[in-house]
């Protein structure tokens, strides 16, 4: 129970220590927003901007990034956050997508570890998430 109370308090303190005059961009204001921004940029093929979602976003890596197929719909859902020490959080979620309007909705589980930086939440690394058995 203490961890549930202390984790949000720690995040609040980190934000309070940050320059209060500098507002965080909406796309990096929460772990969920960062994850959503990453996927949105990827489906729009804005790979350089997708790299900005990472702690060590290196624009030189964009030509090697995985290219998603054309999609008509993509959503990230069912976020589960596990707070870690030192301004980190593990985020597990489902990606739901549809390739064409006639397709049924497909999904897969995934996750990322994010760090709170001076410019908001950034992806430190992907997490390996095992597929759930029915």
If you had to describe this structure to a student in words, what would you say it looks like?
The chain is α+β, with helices and mostly antiparallel strands and 134 residues long. It has a single domain, classed as Nuclear Transport Factor 2, Chain: A. It has three helices and four strands; from the N terminus they run H-H-H-E-E-E-E. It has helices at 2-17, 31-43, 47-51; strands spanning 73-84, 88-98, 106-117, 120-127. Strands 1-2-3-4 form a four-stranded antiparallel beta sheet. The radius of gyration is 16 Å and the shape is globular. Residues 16-21 have low confidence and may be disordered.
**Could you say what the CATH topology is called?**
Nuclear Transport Factor 2, Chain: A
Beta-strand proportion = 25-35%
The CATH class label is: Alpha Beta
Distance between the termini: 31 Å
Specify the structural class.
alpha+beta
CATH arch. level architecture: Roll
The radius of gyration is: 16 Å
Uncertain stretches: 16-21
Shape: globular
Q: What does the largest sheet look like? A: 4 strands, antiparallel
How many strands appear in the DSSP assignment? Answer: 4
Spatial order of the strands in the main sheet? Answer: 1-2-3-4
Any descriptors?
single chain, 134 residues, alpha+beta, four-stranded antiparallel beta sheet, globular
Layout of SSEs?
Elements lengths: L1 H16 L13 H13 L3 H5 L21 E12 L3 E11 L7 E12 L2 E8 L7
Antiparallel strand pairs: 1-2, 2-3, 3-4
In short:
The chain contains three helices and four strands. It has 134 residues and is of the alpha+beta class.
């Amino acid at each position: 129970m203490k961890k549930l109370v202390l984790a949000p308090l720690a995040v609040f303190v980190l934000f309070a220590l940050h320059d209060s005059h500098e507002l965080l961009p909406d796309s990096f204001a929460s772990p969920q927003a960062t994850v959503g921004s990453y996927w949105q940029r990827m489906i729009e093929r804005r790979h350089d901007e997708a790299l900005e979602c990472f702690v060590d976003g290196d624009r030189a890596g964009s030509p090697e990034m995985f290219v998603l197929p054309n999609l008509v719909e993509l959503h990230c859902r069912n976020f589960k956050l596990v707070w870690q020490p030192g301004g980190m959080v593990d985020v597990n979620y489902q990606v739901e997508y549809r390739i064409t309007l006639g397709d049924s909705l497909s999904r897969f589980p995934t996750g990322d570890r994010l760090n709170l930086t001076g410019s908001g939440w950034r992806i430190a690394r992907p997490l390996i998430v095992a597929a759930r058995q029915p």
